[in-house]
Write a structure and sequence with these properties.
- By secondary structure, this protein is an alpha+beta fold.
- The chain folds into 2 domains: 186 residues, no CATH class; 69 residues, no CATH class.
- The chain has 7 helices and 10 strands.
- The strands form 2 sheets. Strands 1, 2, 3, 4, 5, 6, 9 and 10 form an 8-stranded mixed sheet that branches. Strands 7-8 form a two-stranded antiparallel sheet.
- Helix 4 packs antiparallel against helix 5 and helix 4 runs parallel beside helix 6.
- The longest helix is centred in the C-terminal third of the chain and has 26 residues.
Length: 276
């Protein structure tokens, strides 16, 4: 991808020195959209607009691993686009958030750049938090307990989903194997239904593996068979929340993990944080 003068000016906001085009590798990616994802959730168009400003300057890592050694790239530009000729699963005009990111063109990144160019490393995922998650049918915040509608069910001809509203922060974006949002990635691709079903099963297996591995260290007295049954009874969103919660507990209990989060951060509701 050709690096323009405008690109260099925007990248310059984050570098300590003036960089030349020969030192940098720039690529475009789709971060997220307003279509219903694998967890039965979706960003609203307004949320994407706000997320566009929050994501600029955020670092790119691998598999949402919050470690500085995994920092590989940084977003320097982002925009929201409406695709007037395409509709979402619930009948709205398709809207997506795209971005430009840069990384160093050096020996360390040579293999990753080759994998990006070859289309091997392409799927991405965003880590962010939102103020509210609302039911698309009744508009109530699902955390209030007042909503009885179920994700995926049809009400008055429209599929129910959870709306991710009013983003508060964007933490990072990651290269992942199976993103929650089907269209997120460096290369825009639309997956056939059969392939999407396979990816869904792979995503569930990935979440389940995370639950089992973290549960083994936190509650070793609990049998693997029982953990398997619990995982099989959960919806994807519940399974992901359990995986993330156990992972945080495991990292907190590890003597090698230094926790610097403020008390206010620690007291946030866990279901307000989303990796999309």
């Amino acid at each position: 991808m050709k690096i323009t003068k405008q690109d260099l000016e925007k990248i310059g906001r984050f570098t300590k020195k003036e960089m030349s085009p020969d030192e940098l590798y720039v690529f475009s990616l789709i971060l997220c959209d307003n279509d219903i994802d694998r967890d039965g959730e979706k960003f609203t168009a307004d949320s994407l607009e706000k997320l566009a400003s929050l994501i600029i300057g955020k670092t790119g890592i691998f598999d949402h691993n919050m470690s500085s050694k995994d920092q590989i790239a940084r977003i320097f530009d982002a925009k929201v686009t409406r695709a007037e000729n395409r509709l979402t699963a619930d009948g709205e005009t398709y809207v997506f958030l795209s971005a430009k990111a840069y990384m160093l063109k050096n020996e360390k990144n040579r293999d990753l750049i080759s994998e990006i160019e070859a289309g091997i490393k392409k799927e991405t995922s965003v880590g962010c938090s939102v103020k509210s998650i609302k039911c698309s049918v009744c508009g109530r915040d699902i955390r209030s307990g007042a909503c009885a509608h179920k994700k995926g069910e049809i009400y008055d001809g429209k599929k129910c989903c959870h709306l991710l509203c009013d983003p508060e922060d964007a933490y990072e974006w990651s290269f992942v194997a199976v993103p929650a949002q089907r269209n997120a990635g460096i290369v825009k691709a639309f997956t056939p239904a059969a392939a999407a079903d396979r990816e869904l099963e792979e995503y569930r297996a990935e979440l389940k593996s995370g639950v089992i591995s973290n549960a083994a260290s936190l509650i070793p007295q609990t049998g693997r068979e029982l953990i398997n049954k619990i995982c099989d009874s959960l919806h994807l969103a519940e399974l992901r929340e359990l995986r993330n919660s156990l992972k945080k507990d495991a990292e907190r209990n590890s003597p090698l993990c230094i926790q610097l989060a403020s008390p206010e951060k620690a007291e946030k509701e866990t279901n307000s944080e989303y990796i999309i």
